[in-house]
Design goal:
Length: 465
C-alpha cells in the first residue's frame, strides 16, 4: 500500500467506526473517494480500520475505472464509433490507467468524473436539455469533490469554451441563441451546488467544510511550487512516451489531432477536445509539482485523439496492402501495450525502476507485521504488546500495524515511554537513548533508500540468531 493509500484507508476506517468526516484543506483531497469507499467497505464486512483489507478499499477505484471505460460509449455521436471504441480500449489496457485504477487514490475517480463532464457538456451544446445540464453540474461537482486541482481543468475547459464560442460565431451576432442555454445553465449550477454541499458538508453534518475548501486555495498555490516534487516541464511527456508502447500512443494522438483537417473544421467538439488537450498538457507541464498519477489527466484526452489517429489510418487505407500494414501496426501496438502493462502492473509494481512506483512502499515492509506476530507469540501480552513508533513520517505503518491494538506514534522529539517494541526511522533511532540500551535491532525497507529500525529487548532473538 502506497502512503497515500494508507492515509485514505485510515480515514475510511474512521468513518466505518462511526466518526464524522471533516474535510482537511491542508494535506488531503476532497470527500468523493470516501463517499464511494464507505458503502463498498460496509458491504465487504469490515467494521473498523483494523478489519479493512487491500481488496475492500481498492475495489472502489476498480469499479470506477471500469465505469469510466464504459463512458467512452457516450462519445460515439460526437467522435465516431471507431474513435470512441479505440479510445476506450486504450484506456482499458494501457499500463498507466490499469496501474492506478487499482490504487486507493482519488485520480481514477477524478478522471471518470472529468470524462462524464466532457460528455455532458457536448450533449448540452447539442440538445440544450435541462437533464444534460444537471449532469454537467454533477460532473463538475464530483471533479471538485475529488480534487481541488479541478481549478486547473476548469481553466483549460474555459479556454476550450472560448475557442468553441469563437469557432461557432454567427455572421450576425444577434443570431446566437442565448435563451436556450439559460435553463440548462441554471440546472448545471444548481446540481453543482447540491453535489458540493452534500459532499463537503458530509451530508449536512459538517458545514465548515465549504469554508475549508476556500482555505485550501493558498495551500494549493504553495504546493504548485513543488514541495519536493519538482519535475522538469517535459516530465509528463517522457512518462507517457516511455516503455514499448508510449511513443506509439503519442504519435497516434498527434496524428489524430492534425489528420483529416476538413473533418476537424466541421467537428466543433473535436476542435474543443484538441484545444483542451493542448491546454491541460501545457498547464500541467508548467506547474513544477508533478507526480506520475497526475499524467492520467493527460492520458484521457490523448487516448481519444490516439483512437482518432488509428481510426484515420484505417479509413485512409484504400487497398488490402495498406489495410494489412495498418492492422499490423495495431497488433504491434496492442502487443507493446500488453507487454508494458504486464511488466509495470503485474511483474514489478513496486520496483523503483518502475516509473509509476513513485515513493512506492517496497515489498520488504510486508515482513514487519509478520515479525511482530512472531514476537507477540512469545510475549505474555500477545498482540497487545506495546509498540512505539517514533518517526517524523510514519506512513504507511499505521496500515501495516492496524491489527495490533496497542500501537502509538511519536515524533522524534517526543518521549514514547516504555514499550515492548520500538520502531523508528533511521534518523530518530538516536533519540531513544537509554530506553533501548543493549536492545537488538532489525531493519526493514519502507520506501526506496528509506529504512525502519525495529528495536527488540535482549531476551528476544533476532532473525539472524
Amino acid at each position: 500500500m502506497h502512503t497515500d493509500e494508507a492515509i485514505n484507508a485510515y480515514i475510511t476506517g474512521d468513518l466505518l467506526a462511526g466518526k464524522e468526516y471533516h474535510y482537511d484543506p491542508k494535506d488531503r483531497h476532497g470527500p468523493a473517494l470516501y463517499a464511494v469507499a464507505l458503502p463498498i467497505a460496509k458491504l465487504a464486512g469490515p467494521k473498523n480500520f483494523a478489519e479493512l483489507t487491500e481488496v475492500s478499499v481498492r475495489v472502489g477505484p476498480v469499479i470506477i475505472g471500469a465505469l469510466g471505460i464504459l463512458l467512452f460509449g457516450f462519445l460515439v455521436n460526437r467522435m465516431g464509433l471507431l474513435t470512441s471504441a479505440i479510445g476506450a480500449l486504450l484506456f482499458a489496457i494501457s499500463p498507466l490507467p490499469v496501474y492506478y485504477s487499482r490504487d486507493f487514490i482519488h485520480e481514477t475517480f477524478f478522471v471518470a468524473a472529468t470524462l462524464a463532464f466532457i460528455i455532458s457538456v457536448f450533449r448540452v451544446v447539442e440538445y440544450r436539455s435541462i437533464k444534460d445540464g444537471i449532469f454537467v453540474g454533477i460532473g463538475a461537482g464530483l471533479m471538485l469533490a475529488c480534487k481541488e486541482t479541478t481549478v486547473i481543468h476548469f481553466a483549460a475547459f474555459g479556454i476550450a469554451a472560448m475557442w468553441w464560442f469563437w469557432a461557432t460565431r454567427p455572421a450576425d451576432k444577434t443570431q446566437r441563441d442565448w435563451q436556450s442555454a439559460v435553463k440548462p445553465g441554471i440546472a448545471a449550477f444548481v446540481s453543482f451546488c447540491c453535489v458540493m454541499v452534500a459532499l463537503y458538508t458530509w451530508w449536512g453534518r459538517h458545514w465548515e467544510g465549504l469554508l475549508d475548501l476556500v482555505h485550501a486555495i493558498p495551500h494549493l498555490a504553495s504546493r504548485a511550487g513543488g514541495e519536493g516534487h519538482e519535475k522538469p516541464a517535459w516530465y509528463y511527456l517522457a512518462l507517457l512516451a516511455g516503455g514499448w508502447s508510449g511513443a506509439g500512443v503519442i504519435a497516434l494522438a498527434v496524428w489524430g489531432a492534425v489528420s483529416r483537417r476538413e473533418e476537424i473544421r466541421s467537428n466543433k467538439p473535436l476542435q474543443a477536445l484538441i484545444v483542451y488537450t493542448v491546454t491541460i498538457t501545457a498547464l500541467y507541464s508548467i506547474i513544477p509539482y508533478k507526480t506520475p498519477w497526475l499524467a492520467l489527466n493527460l492520458f484521457l484526452p490523448l487516448a481519444l485523439l490516439a483512437g482518432r489517429g488509428l481510426a484515420n489510418l484505417w479509413q485512409a487505407a484504400r487497398n488490402s496492402t495498406t489495410r494489412a500494414f495498418t492492422l499490423l501496426f495495431a497488433a504491434a501496438l496492442a502487443t507493446a501495450l500488453g507487454h508494458d502493462t504486464w511488466r509495470r502492473v503485474f511483474v514489478a509494481p513496486a520496483d523503483e525502476r518502475n516509473p509509476y512506483a513513485y515513493a512506492q512502499t517496497v515489498d520488504d515492509i510486508l515482513r514487519l507485521p509478520e515479525r511482530i506476530r512472531a514476537v507477540a507469540g512469545n510475549n505474555p501480552s500477545g498482540n497487545n504488546l506495546r509498540i512505539a513508533v517514533v518517526a517524523a513520517d510514519p506512513w504507511p505503518l499505521p496500515w501495516y500495524l492496524r491489527q495490533f491494538p496497542n500501537v502509538g506514534f511519536w515524533q522524534p522529539d517526543q518521549d514514547p515511554g516504555k514499550a515492548d517494541i520500538y520502531i523508528t526511522s533511521a534518523e530518530a533511532s538516536d533519540k531513544l537513548g537509554p530506553l533501548v540500551k543493549d536492545w537488538r535491532t532489525e531493519f526493514f525497507g519502507v520506501r526506496p533508500e528509506v529504512l525502519l529500525v525495529m528495536w527488540l529487548p535482549p531476551e528476544i532473538k533476532s532473525n539472524h540468531d
